[in-house]
C-alpha cells in the first residue's frame, strides 16, 4: 500500500462522507486487509465476505474515529475482529502435550514466503489464529485471548505449539 497517498486531506474527505475518497481508501487498503482476512479464515471466498463486512462497518462507523492518524490501525482491528468472529465456531484448540511443545530456538534454514504460508495454513485453527494475531498482527497475549475467548496461558501455550509445529512443517517441506 502506498501510504503517501493516505494523507490528512484524504482522511478529512473520508470523514466528511466523500464517496470518491472512500473508494480511494478502499483501493489503497483492500490488498492489506484482504491478506489479513485470508490469513485468519484460510478460504478465499470467506475472506472476501469478511472483507466486505469489514468495509461496511468501517464506513458506517468512520465518523466515530477520534484520531484520524490511527485510521489504518483502526481499520485493521475491525477487519481482524470480523475475521475472528466469522470463523470463531471453526476455531478449535488442540490439547497440548508438554513433550510436544518443547521449542528449540535454533532454527537455521532459509525458506521463502510460499513455504511459510503453506506451513501456517496447515496449522490447527486455534494455533494458527493465535500465531497470526501475535506474530503477524502484533497483538498482545491479553488482546488475543480476549478476542478468541481464551485465557492468556492458553494463548501462550498455543503460540509455543504453533511455533513448534511451524518448525517441524517447514523442515519437512524443505526436505521434500
Helix content: 55-70%
Beta strand %? under 5%
Q: Which geometry do the CA atoms define?
A: elongated
What distance separates the N and C termini? 34 Å
Low-confidence stretches: none
Structure summary, number of beta strands? 0
Whole-number average pLDDT?
Answer: 84
Give a quick account of the main beta sheet: strands, pairing sense, barrel closure. Answer: none
Radius of gyration: 18 Å
The helix-and-strand class reads mainly alpha
Number of separate helices: 8
List the secondary-structure elements in sequence, H or E.
HHHHHHHH
Protein model, in words:
The structure is a single chain. The chain has helices spanning 8-15, 19-41, 44-61, 71-87, 113-121, 125-136, 141-148, 152-175. Helix 2 packs across helix 3 (44-61). It is mainly α. The model has no long low-confidence stretch (mean pLDDT 84). The longest helix is centred in the C-terminal third of the chain and has 24 residues, at 152-175. The protein has 8 helices and no strands.
Secondary-structure map:
Elements lengths: L7 H8 L3 H23 L2 H18 L9 H17 L25 H9 L3 H12 L4 H8 L3 H24 L1
Helix pairs in contact: 1-2, 2-3, 2-4, 3-4, 5-8, 6-7, 6-8, 7-8
Features of the shown structure:
single chain; mainly alpha; 176 residues; 0% strand
What's this entry about, in short?
The chain is mostly helical and 176 residues long. The protein contains eight helices and no strands. The protein starts with 7 loop residues before the first helix and ends with a helix.
